[in-house]
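Entry 14. Ran structure prediction on the chain below.
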Amino acid sequence: MRQRRRCFHVLVVVMCVLSFLAAVPQARATEAWEGKPGGSLTMLYADDREVQTYVAPPTQATELRAQAATITVAYEGFPPAAQASFQYAVQIWQSLLVAPLPIRVQAVWTELPTGVLGGARPEGFYVNTITKISYPVALAKQLMNRDPSPGEADIMAAFNSSGVTWYYGTGQTPPGQFNFTTVALHELGHGLGFTDSFGVTSGLGGWGSGGVPLIFDRFVVDASNTSLLTAARYPNPSIALTTGLQSDQLFFNGPKARAANAGKSARLYAPNPFEEGSSVSHLDEEVYPPGDPNSLMTPVGARGETNYNPGPITLGIFADHAGHLRRSGLGHRRRRPAAARPAAVRVPAALRPPAGRCQPLLQ
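Output, structure tokens:
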């Protein structure tokens, strides 16, 4: 097991706090955007270990202030307590984002496979035809300054209605329970853009749709700081790329994420074998354990774990995507237990991508 790396001091990072529109130039008249299908669900799994940790919400989430983002949610089957808990997660994200166009979420309360707390995906991607980069629709619409799919959800999130003892409050999670707001906050993060297009099929690693990477993919590097999009080192698809994806040595090297992490690239979850729906699209569990300010976007959630803050690295990652932040907040590898690692997670048919619109991004 790698030596645990814990930060014993808080590095105050001065970051440019910019809106979607201020940080990224408005779409030029010559630019066009091409729609792409949405992705598969990125899962958060349950860790059976018990912890008692607490990460406080961002200060601005508890203040009475005008929000600069609107997230609307269409609930399906949610009990009132779960809906109120989800709305608290929405409130936290709204306090951090600056988005002129509303972001729409479809939240589904349904039975998921044992060991799965929740899952989420962007409901579509849009490719900038000049930069040849794909963006999740919640971000792409802000860059376009228009809504390409009026009335449709930008994010789909599902939560397990069976076999999970949920805590719906806003305080410290009692022993034996999973904090619902923490899970909702995590899943909204995936829908907003903490997601990648890497995958392994028949032993070959690959990325993208039609040779176009996601914005997240552009910042994924190996231990030598070589991008996984470098064709000379990692042909797409290839066994070499599979080796890289399973190396336990992947990092996010965007400048804003590094600034939020004492100048170091942020370590990503890259176990061997590759875990569909978990690998790459999470921060490393050992480096950012429960209670760490950056622990929200790791691949598992524990009983008693309470986290009401996306954390500086995640906010830095989103700033690297397009600067869609009002401000930043500071503040043993816990591999998923074998019982929580099904060889193939079967998602209920109702939550699978609709034919013709939301097939898996990696083809």
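The CA atoms of residues 70 and 192 lie 13 Å apart. Will compare against last week's run tomorrow.
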